[in-house]
Write a structure and sequence with these properties.
Layout: H1 2-25, H2 39-42, E1 53-63, E2 66-70, E3 80-85, E4 87-89, H3 101-113, E5 115-121, E6 128-129, E7 136-144, E8 150-152, H4 153-159, E9 164-166, H5 174-186, E10 206-207, H6 210-215, E11 224-235, E12 238-245, E13 250-257, H7 264-269, E14 275-285, E15 290-294, E16 310-313, E17 321-322, H8 325-330, E18 332-337, E19 340-345, H9 346-350, E20 354-367, E21 379-385, E22 388-394, E23 414-424, E24 427-432, E25 438-440
Parallel strand pairs: 3-7, 10-11, 17-20, 22-24
Antiparallel strand pairs: 1-2, 1-5, 2-3, 4-9, 5-7, 6-7, 7-8, 11-12, 11-14, 12-13, 14-15, 14-16, 18-19, 20-21, 20-23, 21-22, 23-24, 23-25
Helix pairs in contact: 4-5
Length: about 450
Amino acid sequence: MKQTFRKIFICLTALALLLSVLVSCAPAEETPKAEHVDYAASVKLEEGSATLKQEVTVKAFIDGDTTHFHVPSSVMPGGVLKARYLAINTPESTGKIEEWGKAASNYTKSKLQNATSIIVESDDGKWNADSTGDRYLVWVWYREAGSEAYRNLNIEILQEGLAIASNSANNRYGETCMAAINQAKTEKLHVHSGEKDPNFPYGQAQELTLKELRLNVTAYDNTKVAFEGVITKDSNNTVYVEEYDPETDLYYGMQVYYGYALNGKGLEILSVGNRVRIVGTVQYYETGGTYQVSGLEYSLMKPDDPGNIQKISDGHTPAFVSITPEQLLSGSVSVTVGEEVKSYSFAELSIYTSVSMEGLEVVDVYTTSNEESSSKGAMSLTCKAGDRTFIVRTIVLYDMEGNLITESYFRGKTISVKGLIDYFDGEYQIKLFSVNDVTVS
């Protein structure tokens, strides 16, 4: 009998062990994922609320959280409302370029470009300016084709994980904003993913815009930087690059010295008319008294290396913005930098950008005559327009037959020019690079 009980006990013990092994090997039940909520559609645009509302059209896309809209002049003097989106702060894409910044900018642009209607709404009963006094804090609503309902773009950007919080709880849609942020964090989207931005060129260079570089050029002295722009001129182993900024409605430029180190493919990338990504080091150019970028590299073996210069597109032309002598000599512009508005000299800020000017009387001409200089034959034209006098400086110019153009071509004539703003011998001038860029009458 004892042996029978012992056998039964052993069998039960073995069965218990087997069951425990089977249970431990069984797949654990996964915690069900929370259902995704479309918070951008969960709030409604209340037509009868006390907030101000205005249907708008886009004037300029700036970045993920800033857009300029056309509005009636009764809403904003000048007919433009510079909108800063309430409750969100997207990564930077107009100054120092940050991870996910261009993704956020492109997302906002795509939604508004395809919208059949856009409405901006204040948070209360008035249009409230931000700390700069130049932009207004608004909610942006858009309607898609085939839909009657408006979606809240601010909240949509938050739920897509393309922005971080910015006083997100302290507004009329605060509860929904916070829920959208928390959902994006739970779903680990974009800025909350902990992953690298697949479209960000990680490298040693500081990613920025030409606007950021020109506004803060001394801060980047001896710094390796990367920026995009259109090549407008190529002269003396130097190309000139410019880029339009819709926020300030200005062009920003830089001279880029490529020297003799680039191979054929690298030089091809730097062709006039190409839009390029420049990577190089900012340096003070003692001879010219200005800054330039140099130290460019291009490796045929690693064409996609973030340290390389890169061609983005071609077929572009210089802007040749029409300016007056007053703008060149004494003009000033106001630019929003961070959270304040600063005043700059127009010429200083626009140096190396392409401009045009008409009706200039050439009252004197000086020709470089140094036999040992590569600039022998270059001219400085003293031009007069009204009561203002300034210099238009040329490189050595030749006509279509290859003949050297001399003083007699310009002296006493009236000219219209297309050139670049330059700084030479302590003053701002216009520099000409081709006889095709001047009309003589």
